Amino acid sequence: MSLDILIFGAHADDAEIGMAGTIAKHVSAGMRVGICDLTRAEMSSNGTVELRQKEADEAGRILGLTTRSNLGLPDRGLYITPEHIAAVTAEIRRHAPSIVFAPYWEDRHPDHVMCSKLVEEAVFNAKLRRYMSELPAVHVQQLYYYFINDLGQADVIVDVSEHYELKEQSLMCYRSQFDAPAEGDDVVATPLNQGYLQRVRARDSLLGQRSLIQLAEGFACKTPIVVEHFHSRG
């Protein structure tokens, strides 16, 4: 199934934290967008694999994803190995996206960093026709990086003010991760359930501030961004 945009995350909720507004905006424009979660987050302190899958499915429905997949790679066991690179490369070739997104290469969670590296390797390998020749080679036009926990220098920002309600709705699907622990619950305190969603909104507000945008999502890029013409917004 071909996609316009394919987004990779180490865990379900990574893509929504970083770019759910951008996803919703592109879906509303008629583009085919998919998410691939590398792991089932089986090492999460809260929630279960089954519950997190249900949450991811519901978030995907809210955002209007064309497809959502999970590679089932080991949580806290992502490494730059031939097997892991091949799994991500195969996903790119199955969907032949024009644009790929990965987590920013600096983040407090090692799985996010490793996911970023794996996707970069896979995007390169996807175009090599003699690599995994059973699947047609795919040339990805651009690889962008979205921010999860740590904010770097944004090379591009997207105005998501009109689609932010859908971002927040998709994030609220992940109650196992973001709901604060209550007395008697089998839930432990983590950075995610201590006001994390409020901090995400504050970050997105700050990203748009200099451009007089109410809410924005930012992206980094390691290669030059090609434009046909420069023009003003509006």
Helix content: 25-40%
Overall spatial form: globular
How far is it from the N-terminal to the C-terminal residue, by CA? 33 Å
Q: What is the mean predicted local confidence, pLDDT?
A: 95
Q: What pattern of helices and strands is seen along the backbone?
A: EHEHEHEHEEHHHE
Uncertain segments are none
Approximate strand percentage: 15-25%
β-strand number: 7
- Please tell me how large the radius of gyration is: 17 Å
Q: Count of DSSP helices?
A: 7
Helix-strand makeup class: alpha/beta
Largest sheet: 7 strands, mixed
Order of strands, main sheet, comes to 3-2-1-4-5-7-6
Concise synopsis of the structure shown:
By secondary structure, the chain is of the alpha/beta class. The protein has helices at 14-28, 49-63, 82-95, 110-126, 164-172, 175-178, 196-209; strands at residues 5-9, 33-39, 67-73, 99-103, 142-146, 156-159, 216-220. The radius of gyration is 17 Å and the shape is globular.
Walk me through this protein's architecture.
- The chain is α/β, with parallel strands linked by helices.
- Helix content is about 40%, strand content about 15%.
- It has seven helices and seven strands, in the order βαβαβαβαββαααβ.
- The protein has a seven-stranded mixed sheet with strand order 3-2-1-4-5-7-6, sandwiched between helices.
- Helix 2 links the parallel strand 2 and strand 3.
- The chain is globular and about 55 Å long.
- The model has no long low-confidence stretch (mean pLDDT about 95).
Question: What's the SSE blueprint?
Answer:
Blueprint: E1 5-9, H1 14-28, E2 33-39, H2 49-63, E3 67-73, H3 82-95, E4 99-103, H4 110-126, E5 142-146, E6 156-159, H5 164-172, H6 175-178, H7 196-209, E7 216-220
Parallel strand pairs: 1-2, 1-4, 2-3, 4-5
Antiparallel strand pairs: 5-7, 6-7
